[in-house]
Model the fold of this input.
Amino acid sequence: MCFVRANVAAMSGYVPGEQPAPTRQLIKLNTNENPEEPPPRVKQALARGLELDLRRYPDPSATRVREAACRVHGHGLAPDQVVVGNGSDDLLTMIMRTFVDPGDGVVAPGPTYTLYAVLTRLQGGCFKEVPWRGEGGLPVDALIAARAKLHFVVRPNAPTGHVVALDEVARLCRSVQGIVVLDEAYVDFADDHGLGLLADHPNLVIIRTFSKSMAMAALRIGLGFMDRRLAVEMHKVRDSYNINAFSQLAAQVALEHHGDYRPIWDEIRAQRRRLTLALRQRGFVVPDSQANFILAQVPVGGMTGVEWLEQLKKRGIHVRHFASDPRLADKLRITIGKGVELDRLLVVVDELLAG
Done:
């Protein structure tokens, strides 16, 4: 196909987690969705979506969503510091379009979210991954030495679930000439967040999603927080009418009832602790996580990671295995589901360990 751009022909696309057809028996723990539906007041308010005038285009800049985000998150944020995306992946695409020229360097500590590399290559940039054991701090010196235009840090990290100190993120912002993107997709399950860094670091962009903690993965909503001068540039490359009217309503309602989600997050944290301890007792190596998932190294001397994946799938339990990354070959990423789902997972794990 001679018509295809050379960098597109040479690259591999991003492979999302499997989305099996839903059944009553399926336990889906592979794509880090929220196991609970949005709170009752949010669902009730969404009924207003039936009154939307479907003939009209939505607000192109999602004004009410941006205003609601500032009211909820504080830190002196103004609406002109917020960009709304069709999911946080849309924001990542905008970031690439805005800041990365062909040949520019993009760096991230790894293992991490593989879409960064895909989007970099699509833009004609050069992606570099800095090795990162994860248990220690952020490899700030190595990230600085990469002399990149764009620097990604995921906090809590995917797929490991651990967090780095905010002062390390601040040091990175102070020490590089380019943009630092702090991806906080899982931050509502963590102990703290980085919005307070924005006032002192005009080269920092923070992105969040409604797909995890807000239980709205189907609606594709993301928020980007940044210096207003960066926001002006990102709006130039944003697709027109990129957020449909119903998603804008849903985002606004969810933000207005933000506090209603806290019991859901608390329960996910409690189930995360329970699953972590239970798997450790069964011989898995499970580092502490501050996300809505854990990364579990399978017991030594038994089945391989991919064998665990297939055996669990045969029994109706879907988890995530990253076969293409040798560093993760003996590990499973397991979403924190409902208590009854994790009970079933542990029963099946015991059966498989017993042979």
Remarks:
- The mean pLDDT is 95.
- The first strand starts at residue 27 and ends at 28.
- DSSP finds twelve helices and eleven strands in the chain.
- The first helix runs from residue 6 to 10.
